[in-house]
Design goal:
about 80% helix; mainly alpha; about 150 residues; single chain
Length: about 150
């Protein structure tokens, strides 16, 4: 059976890719020009997201979820949801605490630097999760429509 992806779906995948890159970039420029925020705040936000959420949190998940306790956690949807929320909060808030108490100590005089940090943190997350996923979906959709992908 031949599958095709509607053109409107492909268009909105492309729009999602553009928006997921353009919005963090626009926030960077806006906070820099309007409030004089430090460049470092944005990039520290990106780095904290990468290190604390994508590396350290994933290491803990691999240890906990592959244990006997992990089997019990994965067996109960409510427990699994609570575990996921707790771990995300623990690692992301620990990362923020670390960033603002050490790396961004000199930038705390301008409250808008927290917004710049958030634009970097959220921007990194949206680029890593949404942009890369949508690029993959877009490529696969085009391959399906051209008959080049196995279904």
């Amino acid at each position: 059976m031949n599958y095709t992806v509607p053109t409107i779906s492909i268009v909105f995948m492309a729009i999602s890719i553009l928006a997921s890159v353009a919005i963090p970039a626009a926030l960077y420029v806006f906070f820099r020009r309007k409030y004089g925020c430090a460049h470092i705040s944005f990039w520290v936000g990106c780095a904290v997201m990468l290190v604390f959420a994508f590396i350290l949190e994933q290491l803990v998940h691999s240890v906990i979820l592959n244990s006997a306790a992990g089997a019990a956690i994965k067996a109960n949807i409510w427990l699994y949801g609570a575990y996921g929320g707790l771990m995300a909060g623990l690692f992301e808030e620990s990362g923020r605490l670390f960033a603002f108490s050490t790396l961004l100590k000199k930038q705390r005089g301008n409250d808008h630097n927290a917004l710049m940090y958030g634009a970097g943190h959220g921007g990194c997350e949206v680029v890593c999760l949404l942009t890369f996923t949508m690029i993959n979906n877009l490529i696969y959709s085009i391959m399906l429509n051209n008959g080049q992908a196995a279904t």
